[in-house]
Write a structure and sequence with these properties.
The chain starts with a strand and ends in a 6-residue tail after the last strand. The strands form two sheets. Strands 3-2-4-1-6-7-8 form a seven-stranded mixed β-sheet, sandwiched between helices. Helix content is 37%, strand content 21%. The chain is globular. The longest helix is centred in the middle third of the chain and has 18 residues. By secondary structure, it is an alpha/beta fold. The protein has one domain: Phosphoglycerate mutase-like (Rossmann fold, 3-Layer(aba) Sandwich).
């Protein structure tokens, strides 16, 4: 049996502004810092043995409060970095136009295969995170761990743990203040936590994939 908590980083200043982040590294917003404290409160009594984060500041800062409380170090893993969005990073979704608009539309139609200039596609991300997840499952049998990642990378991780095809994983949604718990034993169970309240067997699924 293994329990894996998967958290998304707290809200950033670019989340507030509606900008595409990717590998860019904006600061947490005041609300984002509050969400990092909420993560601490949600998991402070759990017997976590390891906490993993991407290299990006927004994920590390979200992971630090719970890590410090439990006396654990945040283990930085570049495999968990957000999808690279290339030429679209820093652009507001509401202001994509011209050639960028055409590129964006092509990407939305073929997220698994199309590369924006300087970017990854979803298949690239899945290939990148799979060895990490396989190692976590191998190293932490019988234990509880926390992963703090990003919208797209977390979709891939959750989808892998639930055995979802990539096409279905695209629709998994995770607000900044949502933590998923994936428990694997004889069967796989999933739960979510928001604002300290839990719900069994629910994965948020968006009707339209935004990013």
């Amino acid at each position: 049996m293994i329990k894996i908590y998967i958290a998304r980083h707290g809200e950033t200043t670019w989340n507030v502004e509606g900008r595409i982040q990717g590998r860019s590294d904006p600061e947490l917003s005041p609300r984002g810092y509050e969400q990092s404290q909420a993560l601490l409160r949600q998991l402070e009594d759990r017997p976590l043995v390891a906490i993993y984060s991407s290299t990006l500041r927004r994920a590390v800062l979200t992971a630090q409060p719970i890590a410090q409380h439990l006396g654990l170090r945040v283990q930085i893993r570049p495999e968990l970095d957000e999808i690279a969005f290339g030429v679209l990073e820093g652009v507001r979704l509401s202001e994509i136009e011209g050639d960028l608009k055409a590129e964006w539309e092509r990407f939305k139609q073929s997220r698994l295969t199309y590369h924006l200039p300087g970017a990854e596609n979803y298949t690239d991300v899945a290939r990148r995170v799979r060895p990490f997840m396989e190692k976590v499952l191998l190293d932490h049998e019988g234990e509880e761990t926390l992963i703090v990642g990003h919208r797209v990378t977390n979709r891939m991780l959750i989808g892998m743990l639930l055995g979802c095809p990539l096409e279905k994983s695209l629709k998994i949604e995770q607000p900044n203040d949502c933590v998923y718990l994936i428990e694997r034993h004889l069967e796989t169970k999933v739960a979510h936590y928001m604002d300290g309240a839990g719900g069994e067997g629910l994965i948020f699924e968006g009707h339209e994939v935004i990013l």
